[in-house]
Design goal:
Length: 110
Amino acid sequence: MMRTLSEFPRLGEKKEDNKEDGVNNARPLLVTFSNENIKKSVFLNVSKLKTMTGPLEAVSVDHDMTQKEREETKALIEEAKKKEENSAGNFTFRVRGPPWNRYIKKLPKK
């Protein structure tokens, strides 16, 4: 059997739930997948979480980029800023896409 999760520690300090106020002090999990294809599969299907009801309707998922992904995104943002400065002023340039497939998108200025 193949393991898909290599680790999933809870983040933050544990606090007691406040039953009187109905406040649930849920803590996030940092989930590490055993390979990148599993991560891509999860994030391609994450929109299905929005249709869930019950206890899963409060679940949200977000990327935690690696240092390399952060550096690549930062370089793309700088490139987008340069393109915007060099354009005639009719367009704005934004970085879009998931961390494994970032690209610069040309958008009309509002």
